[in-house]
């Protein structure tokens, strides 16, 4: 079945530092989505990437889809306390899978 | 625009009891998903409907879980009988189209089985 791993599992950063989470698949992906889940909340859609090598930006967030469409990354520049939460990648193949998630803690 | 509605928000039952969850998706959304999220893990897709037809239920434990989406609008997920390992948050999501695109999640139902 589909294997989608995210690293790191946890990340603690000082406010203002950068943060990156990586999503790796064992198979080629048709597309990838990213979601954010605040503590106690539900997942909220951030973005979808479709094209090989695609890069999209949303303010301080940069999303990248690998050339081989087997991996993706989410980079946050100058983290803020509002960035706290768990970031999930999600992939569609024969089925819809969420990654294992990266839990981000931002220390003020 | 109203979001995805779920009820109840919390439920505590004893093992071997039955429980049902309800979801009302965003109006006009053809696809509805039920996920199980165990603490510390990512959501796991249980079943996906397009309108009132099942698209994928490969990860649904069919010996105890069932779901329906009559009339292609709201949906219910049932567990009968519940086991301790069913303790989780059950999330409902909907999307406009099929197979791709943004999913909108409801607040979830937190189930505790004792």
List keywords for this structure.
heterodimer, A: 108 residues, mainly beta, five-stranded antiparallel sheet, 11 strands, 0% helix, globular, B: 114 residues, seven-stranded mixed sheet
Give me the Rg of chain B, rounded: 13 Å
- Percent in helix of chain B: under 10%
- Structural class, from helix and strand content of chain A? mainly beta
The total count of helices of chain B amounts to 0
Which two chains share the most extensive interface?
Answer: A-B, 19 and 23 residues
Number of DSSP E strands of chain A: 11
Task: Give the strand tally of chain B.
Answer: 11
Characterize the structure shown.
The complex is a heterodimer of chains A (108) and B (114). Chain A is built from no helices and 11 strands. Chain A is mostly beta strands and 108 residues long. Chain A starts with a strand and ends with a strand. By secondary structure, chain B is mainly beta. Helix content of chain B is 0%, strand content 48%. Chain B contains no helices and 11 strands. In chain B, the strands form 2 sheets. In chain B, strands 2, 4, 5, 6, 9, 10 and 11 form a 7-stranded mixed beta sheet that branches. Chain B has a 4-stranded antiparallel beta sheet with strand order 1-3-8-7, with no helix packed on it. In chain B, a hairpin with a 6-residue loop joins β4 and β5 (44-50). Chain B is globular, with a radius of gyration of 13 Å.
């Amino acid at each position: 079945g589909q294997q989608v791993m995210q690293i790191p599992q946890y990340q603690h950063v000082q406010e203002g530092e950068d943060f990156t989470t990586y999503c790796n698949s064992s198979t080629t992906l048709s597309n990838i989505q990213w979601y954010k889940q605040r503590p106690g909340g539900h997942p909220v859609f951030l973005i979808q990437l479709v094209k090989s090598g695609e890069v999209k930006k949303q303010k301080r967030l940069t999303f990248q889809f690998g050339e081989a469409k087997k991996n993706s990354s989410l980079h946050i520049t100058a983290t803020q306390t509002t960035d706290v939460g768990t970031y999930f990648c999600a992939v569609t193949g024969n089925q819809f899978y969420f990654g294992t998630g990266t839990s981000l803690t931002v220390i003020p | 625009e109203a979001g995805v509605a779920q009820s109840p928000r919390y439920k505590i039952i004893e093992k071997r009891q039955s429980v049902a969850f309800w979801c009302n998706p965003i109006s006009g959304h053809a696809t509805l998903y039920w996920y199980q999220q165990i603490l510390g893990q990512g959501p796991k897709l249980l079943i996906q409907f397009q309108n009132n037809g099942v698209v994928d239920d490969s990860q649904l434990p069919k010996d105890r879980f069932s779901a329906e989406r009559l009339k292609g609008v709201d949906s219910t997920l049932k567990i009968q009988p519940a086991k301790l390992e069913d303790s989780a948050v059950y999330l409902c999501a909907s999307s406009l189209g099929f197979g791709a695109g943004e999913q909108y999640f409801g607040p979830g139902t937190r189930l505790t089985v004792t």
